[in-house]
Structures are given as structure tokens and as C-alpha cells.
Amino acid sequence: MESRHLPIVRTDKSFKQMSAGEKFFVRVSKSGFSQSALCEFVTIEKGMVVGEVLKHYFPRGHSPFEELTEGNTIRKRAKNCFLWYQGESEHWPRYHWFKSLNEPVN
Length: 106
Description:
By secondary structure, this protein is mainly beta.
């Protein structure tokens, strides 16, 4: 999966300001391999972002991670979540990572 296949997702809110249904991405890494999923925000539980997986993105030839199966509920720290969009001073879309539940992406 190449990043150019990701849909544009942008917000100026932190996770604590998000409402149910807003979109974000999550990245999971195992044994040196990373896969991403587009998720819909559900809530925050015990300092973790809770979301429902809408679409799983993984490289051709790789087995998909089971936890990122579409329809699953995931719980991840904010630092494993990101948005994908083109900033005003950027020439192409890029990853914009969350640092915490209280801070919007940079």
C-alpha cells in the first residue's frame, strides 16, 4: 500500500474535542512491518483512543493484521494515530501525527 492511496482526512481538533464519527488513521507495527487503517472516532477510554476500523490498508503480498479488520474496535494511544492531508505550505499530502489526546496535529 502506498500513501498516495489514502483518502485526505483533516481536522484542527484534538482527540478530546472530537465527536463520534470523525475520521482518523491508526498505524500498527509488528516485526518491522507497518499497516494503517482509516477509523471512525468512538470515544476515549483510560487514556486510549477508541475507534471503529472502516478500511484497512496493507502492502500487497503481506498478510493483513487481524486487529485492523474492518468493523473491529481498536484502542490505541494518540501517538499511534495520524491524519493525512496537504498543509498550506506543503507541495503534497503527508502524515500529520497526534502527540497526545490534548493536542491537535502539528
